[in-house]
Sequence to fold (696 residues):
Amino acid sequence: MTLETSIEFLKGIGPERAKFIKNVLGITTVEDFLTFYPLRYIDKSKIYKIGDLRAEPEAEIQLKGKISDIQEVAYGKGQKRLTAKFRDDTGTLDLVWFRYSKWMKEQIPLNLPIFIFGKINDFNGIFSMAHPEIEVDEKKALSGTLLPIYPGSEKLSKRGLNNKFFQTVLAEITRNLPNLVEENLSDSLIKKLKLIGRITSLYNIHFPKDLHHFEHAEKRVKFEEAFFFQLGYGLKKQHHKTSAVGNPFPKVGDHFNNFYKHCIPFELTNAQKRVLKEIRTDMKKPIQMNRLLQGDVGSGKTMVALLSMLIALDNGFQSCMMAPTEILAQQHFASVQELLENTEIKVRLLTGSTKTSERKIIHEELLSGELSILIGTHAVLEDIVQFKNLGLAIIDEQHRFGVAQRARLWAKNKIPPHILVMTATPIPRTLAMSFYSDLDVSVIDELPVGRKPIITAHRREKDRLTIFRFAKEEIEKGRQIYFVYPLIEESETLDYKNLLENFDHILEFYEGYNVTMLHGRMKPAEKEAAMQYFASGKAHIMVATTVIEVGVNVPNASVMIIESAERFGLSQLHQLRGRVGRGAEQSYCILVTSDKLSSDSRTRMKTMVDTNDGFKISEVDMQLRGPGDILGTQQSGVVDFKKLNLVTDGNIIKVAKASVEHLLKNDPNLEHPENFQLRTYYAKQYKGKNKWSRIS
Ligand code: ADP
Ligand code: MG
Fold:
């Protein structure tokens, strides 16, 4: 038997079953089976009490007591079953045998202290156990190992592929472990981290003697997953740093300095300064920058982006900045243009709705080098958009763009441009450590001074009148208000109708004020006009769907009312809330929900009320939804670990990451003899798998 052996050749499988197992579980080789880990274990070392039993389907437990009242009961067409009572000092349980022999019946020890083991059935609160395993010897009953329970299904059981089957197969495979696998971590690492050996861990993850042995096995298995995952990213990052040529930007010149001295209307925060320095250090090198800029909403990423583009310009290079929506691109354009008002620097906007004549000018100016900064949507990716010398590409709101799209930016210059990816969606640290392992990460963890934290409240629909009145008072103080309504794709028409109805209510209540509306069905020009109407301060109220979610910047808006807030996810709520609190005034976010809320919804509302910290919110979000959902389906495969849990195994991930960094620092090419096993394993395991090259 080797790891590559097809399961067809294992005892008790054969071609038919092998095919079936492959279809249902995707298992084809011995190796696949080895990492088909138990879902849970039954602890036979534990004795339950009848009085403590709860309705818990599938629970297999051990009880200690005495059997009595054994009798044969006739039922159906001449069929018989055997029943008995089982008592401990807390209660009584029915035992039943549907199949039994006379011999077996006589073997059942009556009125003796014994142990029974089996699955508890709950019939209307009456517990029973069918076909219990009986053990008289206390030592045997209690010295049992933890019994592995494999993830099975009815489909499998029907074919006789039940838990017993999996136990038998795995028992055979694990017996051969010493011939099957080799250690894949270095001795020093194992020693340093007090890990158990690989063979022991694989044996004990299937058949642990007790909880202690299981925990050590699990720790080792999880560490291995985290370690080799990080190693993949680490090697890729290292490769990038040594072989991805980029244009060095050695100097900071007049464009940057003049702007910095004369045009910035505020002092940069320390975090902005630090991040800028990190970017500057990267761009100085003749290596392509590949950096992620994380910063909560309103932390001032745009300014960092602009300053970076000015450094590119000082070195004779063009820049482009790409946003996921037309509105956002327009806003970036408007704010950058305003900031650059007193300079000679040329900026243009390119989106899907840019007129042909304007496009022509853009194309020409890009090629001649006259245009220094291009801001736009994915329209900038089109092949016809060519630069004279693109030196820096900035992508705002990273999670909306696919990898393939980003890769197209690279191709726009002979030497690929430096890449700065900006995201306002903070993600949990464990996720960032895994998901962004091949990017350098900069974090703006500080908001500009003078920002007042947004006050968030959770209200019910019946409070609506009070909320409306409150908003009116704010308008009278000169503020502007957002009303946001959810939009769910499946019932877009309904939602749209709902939005219009609400719009009418608002018009009625706020008679005499200007109300504007923004939703996904509007044409780009209409959207822009509506946005403009609100941004200019002419409209007091903006009624919108989540179109406004990302990036919209109207500092005078101070109240965000989110209707049916329970229909939004946490990160979405946080993004929406980020549309207020952008000016000097106290801002408010009011989450309106119905009375009946699921416990998850309650947690979401409470989290929003309790904190403004996007990173904290993302942690809760991950606990509620799991890591896959946070990254989106497109990327969920990336966090597809067998044992490792990104929600709870933060420490293991941290240690694995540090271990990989240490390893690559001391032995970048994995050439030391002590890393031989590690290198061999990695090469074998990951050859041809391109999972690691997901991020540009
Ligand atoms: P985000 O990080 O969400 O993209 P923006 O770049 O839109 O944030 O900045 C939010 C607001 O804060 C803008 O109005 C911007 O001009 C302002 N701003 C940025 N940096 C500072 C700063 N250091 N001090 C004061 N205001 C700032
Ligand atoms: Mg922004």
